[in-house]
Amino acid sequence: MSKAIRIHQTGGPEAMVFEDVAVPAPAAGEVLLRQGAVGVNYIDVYHRTGLYPAPLPCALGLEGAGTVEAIGDGVTDFRPGDRVAYANPPIGAYAERRVIPAHRLVKLPDSISETQAAGMMLKGMTAQYLLRRTYRVQKGDTILVHAAAGGVGLLLCQWADHLGATVIGTVGSPEKAELAKAHGCHHPILYRDTDFVAAVREITQGTGVQVVYDSVGIDTFERSLDCIKPLGMMVSFGQSSGKVAPLDTGILAAKGSLFLTRPTLMTYTAARADLVSMATELFEVVQSGAVKVEISRTYPLAEAAQAHCDLEARRTTGSLVLLP
Fold this sequence. Notes:
The protein has helices at about 40-50, 115-120, 120-135, 150-160, 175-180, 195-205, 220-225, 250-255, 265-270, 270-290, 305-310, and strands at about 1-5, 15-20, 30-40, 60, 65-70, 85, 95-100, 105, 140-145, 165-170, 185-190, 210-215, 230-235, 260, 295-300, 320-324. The protein is of the alpha/beta class.
């Protein structure tokens, strides 16, 4: 048996139950993993509330790191004792031990701890595909990052700064502005006090940015289109404030023949070769010191509901990690 956080019905944080679950032996192609740390991400909230439906009952979570305890038939890339990490389906990371397909795992370098990995895999590989594949940020680009002091936001700011871009970011408080600035955001904007569209136009001398990275959703989407230069790109990769309304695509033409995409990490990592190459690039920038992973708070696994409360109330910065 293993302890896990599961939901039997969708709802608020109170729907999360800390309970015993049976853990089967790994089948062919699977690995039995003893988890050392588990990442908390906003997509976990979407699963908990039913915005992204999942079969019930189920354990939550898509990100974790730990040690291989046993392998099923046909597994050749891993052996017991290997330190590994993941950030992808199937959900079920909020657990002490779990079985997971081996092809979804990557080996951890010795210099990266399990706690650090659990705080960086999903957010870090999200930053990787956003900056290197969805829109390939180049030296001299100017970009806008919403929620710049959040887990993905801090990684985006650092990595984009490392690539030579000018980074503009929106944040909710002076404290978050200082944090974002310390992590590569050259122009933090307090969105509660300042019209971020006007601020972006002033910073860019009226030209706008090449790309907007928006995980906020309904509160920022439409105004973000006014921040983009002609032929620029709007990247909507989350909806923490609510789902974006249906869009008349003619607006994209009117605002400068803009590109719009709604990418997901799961699509970008569907092929194992892409998963491994993305993780390798992430590990390299972290090991070089160019990108630092901020673990703002850790919680015992049993207190996952409190982590969700803090996350939804926007009381957090950086990454949140559960410790089984």
